[in-house]
Amino acid sequence: MKTQQFIESGILESYLLGMSTDEEQHQVNQMVMTHSEISEYLVRFEKNIQNYFLQSAVPPPADVREIVQFRSNKTDVTKKGNHTYYDMPKDNTVKKDNYLDIEVNDTYIKVHKWWRPAFVAVFILSKVFLITGLYYYFKAASQEDEIQKLRTEIASPKR
Amino acid sequence: MNELERVNDNSGQQVVTKNSVPLTTIEVYDQYGAMAYGIILQIVPQPHLAQEILVSVFSSPLLQSCNSYPFTFAVCVIKLARAKAVEAKRKLMTLAPFSGDNGHSIKENTPEVIFDLAFRQGYSPDEVAEKLKISKSEVLKAFHEFFKSTNA
Question: What's phi and psi for A35, nearest 5 deg?
């Protein structure tokens, strides 16, 4: 395949964006090794692709950086090897530098899935009690009126 | 400055090498965090989930392999961010497999549409070709055309 044809085939774009197959990757590697124009094109295309995606860049919240920093420090510590008691400081004090204070402004909370039916049950029960309470209240009130009416009826013939 | 440079050795053959010292995770984040977040948001528009994916990108052991990657860190981050976002999107859409139309009606097979399907929707070039009833080579050519038009 001619160099220009290979460039225009779009395999290089697919390769750089991680959408190529193993066979295509092998083909690209071979072409890069043997054709200087292709490696030059890749260098230019990398710049273009970076500029293209930088146009749609969105600054993430500051908290995310702190989490990334915390996790990367943690990974670095893990990479140092297995912990042994010989590594422990003799005075058993832990340097404050090893910890990163994180201020979390996240307004979301995670709750157990059973909270949903529990909340629904409490809500329904509260409505049932409310309706029952109102029913008996109005019933008692109407009975009170009835008793009052009967009392007046009983009292009136004596006059 | 691009990290790739051409080195001319005595044999006259040009070799592509990477001319940079290994970057730490936070240095990579400071340089490419916003770009990665923008890419993730294009694929997964929910900010809360996108932030979780962003953290997973920069906590990934694969990021360390970018130091030995033959191309720029930017490209490595782009690939990684897309891969993580597409993976998360696939998990979200397990109930609705990718083979479906997902309610989208495709009127024209423009390079923009093809790139959107492949990069943002997470379809492989073969799946895009099948979906649009075109050949895979046409799909790949559309990628080339797309970036040619964006840099014109």
Answer: -120, 110
